[in-house]
Amino acid sequence: MLIKILDKFFPFLAAILANKEISKETNEKFFKDSKDNWINRLSSSNFSAQDIEKIAHDVYSSQNQRISNIENKAISLLIAIGLSISLLAIINGFSNDLNISQLRWISISIFAIAIIGLVLSAGSAILAYRISKRFVPTTEEIKEIISNKKGLIEWAANHLGATELNAKVGLMKSNWVDAAQRQMLFSLISISIGSILLIVDVILSHMPNSISISISDNLLIFDNATIGT
């Protein structure tokens, strides 16, 4: 319940709590239980050695590709965050030429909130990328494929157990990427609102001079008309 509430307003904290719960299951015991379960299932199945090898390889590769896609999203978000920070720096340089006004202070405050969101988004993306896969096959294990069916079953169980473990790792990565995306969106919306307020402040800061000049011209025309009469 707490995670759902935090997820709506503080996705970074929600990701921390959710991944903490998932991390409790990504341990050696979970992998061993999963591996033993797959050994029992594969041993009692009617699949051939070639089918077992193909299934284990395809399932593991599919999960591995999914994790790689999530990591690519994290890298893309980091690039977008860098561009957003550059945009904020340009906007801030533009705003330094303006007189300090109440509206400008509001826009600066909104930009500050946007920066906090971008920092949290970058932190989430980095954490998503840094969480490593728990199991990666090595060339040494290929020897098990050519030994006998029992060895092949153990090799396949290793991969399938690792797939279940990596699925949880992928979920943790996905939670961080989701938090990064939502915080990024919040920051972009904040930057847009702050920019609009800044533009309005520029317009308002120039309006009084234009109005006074216009009023002075009208009074001058009125005086000339009075003198002529």
Q: Please bin the fraction of helical residues.
A: over 70%
Label the structural class: mainly alpha
- Strand-residue proportion: under 5%
Main sheet characteristics: none
Quaternary status? single chain
Enumerate the spans where pLDDT stays under 50 for 5 or more consecutive residues.
Answer: 210-216, 219-225
Through-space gap between termini: 82 Å
* Mean pLDDT value: 80
Along the chain, the helix and strand elements come as HHHHHHH
Total number of β-strand segments? 0
Instruction: State Rg.
Output: 30 Å
Q: What's the tally of helices?
A: 7
Shape: elongated
**Could you say how many structural domains there are in total?**
1
Description:
By secondary structure, the chain is mainly α. The protein has one domain (28-208). Helices cover 86% and strands 0% of the residues. It has 7 helices and no strands. It has helices at 2-9, 11-23, 28-43, 49-95, 102-130, 142-145, 149-228. Helix 2 packs antiparallel against helix 7 (149-228), helix 4 runs antiparallel to helix 5 (102-130) and helix 4 runs parallel beside helix 7. The longest helix has 80 residues, at 149-228. Residues 210-216 and 219-225 have low confidence and may be disordered.
